[in-house]
Amino acid sequence: MNMNFSELKQNKKNRLKRVQNFLEGKYVQKENIVKLLENLIEPMDTVCIEGNNQKQAEFLAKSFVQVDPEKVNHIHIIQSSLILSEHIEIFEKGIANKLDFSYASIFGSRLLELAQQGKVTIQGMHTFLELYSRYFLDLTPRVALIVAEKADKEGNLYTGANTEDTPVIVEATAFRNGIVIAEVNEIVDKLPRIDIPSDWVDVVVLSPNKPLINPLFTRDPAKINETKILMAMMIIKGIYAKYGVNRLNHGVGYCTSAVELLLPTYAESLGLKGKICQYMAMNPIPTLIPAIESGFIKKVCVYGGETGMDIYAKSRPDIFSTGRDGTLRSNRCYSQMVGLYGIDLFAGATLQMDIFGNSTTATLGRITGFGGAPNIGGNSSGRRHATQSWLMAGNENKKNENDILRGKKLVVQAVETFQPSGAPSFVEELDAWKLQEQLNMPLPPIMIYGEDVTHIVTEEGMANLLLCRTAEDREQAIRCIAGKTSVGLKRDLNKLNELREKRIVTYPEDIGIHKSEASRDLLSAKSIQDLVECSQGLYQPPAKFLR
Amino acid sequence: MNMNFSELKQNKKNRLKRVQNFLEGKYVQKENIVKLLENLIEPMDTVCIEGNNQKQAEFLAKSFVQVDPEKVNHIHIIQSSLILSEHIEIFEKGIANKLDFSYASIFGSRLLELAQQGKVTIQGMHTFLELYSRYFLDLTPRVALIVAEKADKEGNLYTGANTEDTPVIVEATAFRNGIVIAEVNEIVDKLPRIDIPSDWVDVVVLSPNKPLINPLFTRDPAKINETKILMAMMIIKGIYAKYGVNRLNHGVGYCTSAVELLLPTYAESLGLKGKICQYMAMNPIPTLIPAIESGFIKKVCVYGGETGMDIYAKSRPDIFSTGRDGTLRSNRCYSQMVGLYGIDLFAGATLQMDIFGNSTTATLGRITGFGGAPNIGGNSSGRRHATQSWLMAGNENKKNENDILRGKKLVVQAVETFQPSGAPSFVEELDAWKLQEQLNMPLPPIMIYGEDVTHIVTEEGMANLLLCRTAEDREQAIRCIAGKTSVGLKRDLNKLNELREKRIVTYPEDIGIHKSEASRDLLSAKSIQDLVECSQGLYQPPAKFLR
């Protein structure tokens, strides 16, 4: 037998030779980037165009869609997030035709159309950590188009405050003889710190524009209403205080932002400082500022950066990970791992929930993907270290007296009974089932399965699914907090009293919360301007928030 | 309020100032290392002494135990593996008194004694990924004592073929203003590649000795007997072929080594080449060589290195991750992630299993820890991409017709009914329960819970737990393959026929395997020497295997 076990290496050498004319050291002129990509990328390649939640390899994406589809086609895109219109155009233009991804942001509908036209085959939807895992096993990028802030002459890279996916993409690609192409905003003699060593990088291009970073996770306290405050009070008093939750993740939304803003006021008045919410795994969002400044929160492990928060994070190195240069270090892969194994509670929101507690953001006519939610909102059977919260939840979850005690992650879905659009949040059947049929998917696109959800909080009250012993209890618990939705109207009033007695259903008054207390006065910051002041001017919000 | 949010940074600066006299650039002379540690490490510090499965920060460990316990004490050790006797001495000498860990190797009994004497408080046992997660949130090393092969003058590090935990320890420590101290075997002008940039490193010391690396995972084919071969045949034909398992992890043991050696012979004769076992997430162990050389295995994602395999791995870059220098890149954190989310099957072994399928390597008189097994052998509720194997297992696992279809990871426990020591592998009650009492642990130290196990394979036959619909079926399925152990003797012979009919219990003849076929002739390599030849001399086994 005469097998060749160095095909990838030889092929890489050949590719780089083909584009040698365009290169000076590792650098290519921006005018030549399209030609370089056209000559370097081969049909059928797996390609990752770095698409994070926030920063994007924008110049490379814009360049890649300009290659000649006669030369470069049948590309298999494997990247976590589709954020730029170029991430869709690549399929429209016939350059790529296969996709593995995690999150499609606003492109859910266009992606569905393309799939129906046969222009893209969706090979798989993954959580972030799942896609990164496959990068190292059966789905390695042949070419990675990545983005960094600065490079030095040798091609060492500085990713700065928004590191996100870069290290994991580069490691998977570079160590499999893949090709790593980086766009940077600036070339300097000496980098503030090295995030990616130059020998992991093949080509560097100076981008003509600084890529746009959107303040995706910033929530303006001015928009937090009394309903959200009431829900936040129930979460703090009814869940965080009860279980002693000290390590957690908050999803993006006004309700969890309300929780953050109530920590130095309401939670502190309940004597909870030093007892709950000391360790947060989440993006560095501005509504954390009052709880940080008051010493409530001790550490924040970040997935990415947030516009306007760079100087604040730099000035709070005990709270945030920072490099030798003082700038934030964010690493989505490690933070997602923390979200799975390091936290005791995940609190998030959803668009639809059924009577089994299954929830999803996938609705008719779109293919979305769930980013990290299934991972962070999933209970890990592999976890072995115990905390008070994890054991208490596990204890409540024991269905029979003789079951072995297992710990359990708390998973809280906080959702108003109706969405801002007027659509009910609670439904008898998720759209996900129709979507599955429509798209011929092996499974319905459910974001978090009911068995992982432990608490549901609405403006009506709270359901503790851990304590339910029968399917009927579970269904009725959900109906009893589903308000005036059709799901809620089917509640059994006799059952309600029983469930309240068992503490499966808790209304605010059951835990001594009066609706009239839920006032905006409880917010430690009522506006973006308040957050700026609280940060001593270190938080510098984008202009649009100050209008 | 006047809070200081830069305490860690200032404290780090102070510490480095205290040891400035010992430093030339980042370098300290080996004669001064004990003094440096004594002056740099403070009481109550969290310290990680890099302890991997294989490579160890040995010189730093030996130096650390020499510090004066009057000056340095109450240290909280947070490290994945306790491998060196110094990892225990640190507690005996009163330098450290708290421990968070993953795996205690041969020190299970000494650790238990120390705990009973009050010299160490075990704060937590974790899987690897779980401990790394906490490094980024609530359990960050203040000081990390790490190991690399080479450093350059600036302090950039080359970890070479055995990278293992280094990147994750360093990232967690360096970006929290912790102190990173590296021992290296060699100082060179130019590194073959940079694995850790110098600005993540504070102190470097040239170690007087090259640390010992043991071939922990190498199994000699000469020691594989017909029983293991029979079990391997059942695994290949009864599980891998049935589900089409293409991405998997093998634990360490003769049975899974037998599977590897049967791939180019038995499995190929069944027409399974290109259909199973193409992507392996496991250490680069020599028994993989014949399957790699014959083109059966396409890729191996490695957790660490293995003695003797460096040149082979370097010569097979299509199979193994290698750096620009050609040398193996192993990264335990990423590989553990792959073990959770990227594979469809885990096959391992255990010391004890109860009648519920719970299994553990923890036995009386020792505190062990489970390394990565709970993670790799755990089903992830967060996984969202589908494969044939995962869906088929999930389908079999549906307890009621109306249950939602979920995918499921296959978890195979392959164990002979009696251990080599003569102890039965199957027991009515695990020692773990007594251990829990003895050590006052919150939960019994169970390695893999029964609900995660899908198949149990013994020399008697195979139990498919997915198909069991009642607790009684499950218990009897286990008893029916437990041979002459007291658990096995309690089998219900009437039930046996029913279970065989339902394919819950499968004996070799039920799937057309005759015990007489299970011959050593099926092994593609019968000795270490055969493996060397198969590798064309590229595998260079340690001398002890060639005696």
Could you describe the 3D structure shown?
Two copies of one chain form a homodimer. By secondary structure, chain A is of the alpha/beta class. Chain A folds into two domains: 12-206, Glutaconate Coenzyme A-transferase; 221-528, 3-Layer(aba) Sandwich (Glutaconate Coenzyme A-transferase), CATH 3.40.1080.10. Chain A is 30% helix and 16% strand. Chain A is built from 19 helices and 20 strands. In chain A, the strands form three sheets. In chain A, strands 1, 2, 3, 4, 5, 6, 7, 8, 9 and 10 form a ten-stranded mixed β-sheet that branches. An eight-stranded mixed β-sheet of chain A has the order 13-12-11-14-17-18-19-20, sandwiched between helices. In chain A, helix 10 links the parallel strand 12 (279-281) and strand 13 (299-301). The longest helix of chain A is centred in the middle third of the chain and has 18 residues, at 226-243. Chain A is globular. The termini of chain A are far apart. The interface between A and B is large, with 95 and 95 residues.
Q: What is the name of the CATH superfamily of the largest domain in chain A?
A: Glutaconate Coenzyme A-transferase
Structural class of chain A: alpha/beta
Distinct helical segment count of chain A: 19
CATH class label of the largest domain in chain A: Alpha Beta
For the report, how would you describe the main beta sheet of chain A? 10 strands, mixed
Give the terminus-to-terminus CA distance of chain A: 72 Å
- Might you state the CATH topology name of the largest domain in chain A? Glutaconate Coenzyme A-transferase
Could you tell me the radius of gyration of chain A in angstroms?
A: 25 Å
Mean pLDDT figure of chain A: 96
Query: What is the largest interface, and how many residues per chain?
Result: A-B, 95 and 95 residues
CATH architecture of the largest domain in chain A: 3-Layer(aba) Sandwich
Number of strands of chain A: 20
Low-pLDDT segments of chain A: none
Q: What fraction, in percent, of the residue positions of chain A are helical?
A: 25-40%
Morphology call of chain A = globular
Determine the oligomeric state from the structure.
homodimer
- What is the strand content of chain A? 15-25%
